[in-house]
Amino acid sequence: MAVVSDRVFGITVLGRTLEHLGTQMYKRRDVALAELVANAWDAGATEVLISVPLADRYDAATSEVSVTDNGTGMSPDQVDDEYLVIGRNRRAEGQSAPKNRKVMGRKGVGKLAGFGLGRKMNVLTWQENTATSIELDGQKLKAEGGETKTLEIHGTVTDEVAHLPYPSGTRVVMTALKHKTPPDIEGLHQALARRFSRTVIGEMRIVINGAELQQPKIELSMRDPSSGERTDDLGDGNKVTWWAGFSKTVLSSELQGFTVLVNGKTAQAPPYFFGVEATASGQHGTKYLTGVIEADFLDDGVDDESDRISTDRQEIDWEDDSTRAFKIWGEALTRRLLRERASARGKAAEKRVLDNEGLANRLARLDPPSREKAKKFIQSLGSSETEEEKILPLADTIIQAFEYQQFHDYISELDAASDDPVQFAKAVSYMHGWRMLESRALLEVIKGRTEIVEKFFGMIVNNAAETAHTAGQDNLHDLVARYPWLLDPDWQVLAEEKTMTKQLREWGAADGRDRDDTRYDFLALQGDGQTVVIEIKRSAHAATLEDLHQLETYVNKLGMGKSNVTGAFITGEHYAMLDSTLESWKRRNDIQLLTWQQIHARTAKHYENYKAILEGDLDADGFSQRAKEVAMTREVLKKATAYRTRAERREGLGPQDNRFDQLEAHSAETIEPAPPVE
Question: pTM value?
Answer without folding.
Answer: 0.57
